Structures are given as C-alpha cells and as structure tokens.
Amino acid sequence: MSVTEAVGHAQHAAQTAGTAAPQSAAGSSASSSHLALMVGEDRYLVDLAEAGEIVPVPPSSIQQVPLTRDWFLGVVNVRGALFTVVDLARFMGGSFTPLSKESRLLTMSPALAFNATLVVTRMLGLRNSATMTPLDEKPALDKPWLTELYRDGEGQIWRRLNLSKLVAASAFLMVGR
Questions:
Q1: Residue 144: left if φ>0, alpha if ψ -120 to 50, beta else—which one?
Q2: In b/e form, how buried is each residue of 49-61, taking b as 16+ CB within 10 angstroms?
Q3: Tag placement on the chain: N or C end, fewer CB within 10 Å?
C-alpha cells in the first residue's frame, strides 16, 4: 500500500468519524501528520512527503551484494526498479531487525531521488505530532537524521526520522567494507 493510499484510508475513516482528516502529501499537508513505524523496539515518525511505498519484505528476493557492510542487506526489485535494502537499526549501531510477517520495506519518496528501502519491524499508521509533547533532549550529533523527540499520551517516546538528512549522510552512502 502506498503512503497516498494510506492517507486516503485515514481521510475516509476520519470523515466517517466526523473529525478533520490530514491532507494528502500532494495537497497542502499538515506538517504534524507523520507515518508512524517501529524499527526494533524504537518508534519513529516520518514526514509523509519523504515516504514512498510500503511493501512486504520479500526475503528470498533480496539479492545480497558482496563486500558491503552488514547493515546493507542487498537490492530488491520493487515494481521493476532496483532499490537498496538497509537495516536501519543495524545501521545505527543496534542489532539486526528480525523479519516477521509484520515486517515491511519503506521506500523513499521519488522526490528524494534515492532508490532505497528501510526494513521496518511494524507499520503503526499515521500519527499527529501536534498531539505529542516535544522533549527538550537533543538528538545525537552523530545521527543528524534523528531530528526531534516526542512523548505521546501513552508515555511512548517517538523519534522524528528525517529521510532527506539520512540519504545525505556520508555514512549511509558508504556501503562498501
């Protein structure tokens, strides 16, 4: 399901419930609407304008590339185009993301001009960061793609994942060993 389809479903559900719905990424989007996802045990918010498609993980279809870092899982064909597959948790120094039936690949928006996917443990739908409490804690300087921290009403910590900063990071571009 593409992000645009997910937003369309959320808009329909919100209209049915009689509440205001977030605008699609193509329209005048509310900057507080984000795609919510889990990578390992961590929760992330991704700007809808930076997210592409959400596709199931085809483990047997990921073609490994020799002499690359362990977080670079290989390449995969998504609708006729080759995309790299990156284990974001491992890239950031954590353990490998376990693959399950809930796992997905999040492609980057075509606007970023970067054919990459991130392995996601679970998709959590859409979240509005305006309903969350911003935290004063500053993100790590060595991870400029993690830009803001929030706490939701249930006490969960959310990190804002800026994909445009991620694809510009030299560490992300250097996949060779």
A1: alpha
A2: bbbbbbbebeeee
A3: C
Q: Report the C-alpha gap between 24 and 21 in whole angstroms.
A: 9
The CATH fold assigned to 3-12+31-173 is OB fold (Dihydrolipoamide Acetyltransferase, E2P) (2.40.50)
Closest CA to 139 of 71, 47, 45: 45
pTM of the model: 0.79
Give the per-residue pLDDT at 165.
Answer: 95
Residue type, 88: L
> To 5 degrees, how large is the angle CA 132–CA 136–CA 142?
110
In the β-sheet with 51-56, what is the strand arrangement from edge to edge? 51-56, 104-108, 116-120, 81-86, 72-78
pLDDT tens for residues 91-116?
999 999 988 999 999 999 999 999 99
| Segments making up each domain of the chain, as ranges | 3-12+31-173
